[in-house]
Amino acid sequence: MDQSVAVWLVLAVAVLAANLPYFNERLLFVGPRRAPKAVSWRLLELVLMAVLTFAVGAVLESRIGQRHAQGWEFYAAGACLFITLGFPGFVWRYLRRGRG
């Protein structure tokens, strides 16, 4: 796999994963359906999706070549980027549609 393809794949996975908690009413995507899912469940799902996205990136990086060790700065910036990528889903869930 080419390096640029891997980068675009991780970005596409990140955009999808960051917005998925806002468009799904099931608990952890497979559990029972809840009409108004609590914000705490959405935050937990957002954290889990961020971890899975980082794992996909690490796997693709190790398949391309040698995986580089990252410091806390990388993960802090990645988490901020992940939250920013989830903004369209947040707007759709809480700002555009309203509470009802």
Plain-language structure description:
- The structure is a single chain.
- With 100 residues, the protein is mainly α.
- It has one domain (3-96).
- It contains four helices and no strands.
- It has helices at residues 3-23, 39-64, 72-85, 87-96.
- The mean pLDDT is 90.
What are the key terms here?
transmembrane helix; DUF2818 family protein; about 70% helix; about 100 residues; membrane
Mean of residue pLDDT? 90
Total number of β-strand segments? Answer: 0
User: Would you tell me the structural class of the helices and strands?
Assistant: mainly alpha
Total count of helical runs of at least 4 residues: 4
Question: Span from first to last CA?
Answer: 46 Å
Structure, briefly:
With 100 residues, the chain is mainly alpha-helical.
What layout of secondary structure does this protein have?
Elements: H1 3-23, H2 39-64, H3 72-85, H4 87-96
Helix pairs in contact: 1-2, 1-3, 1-4
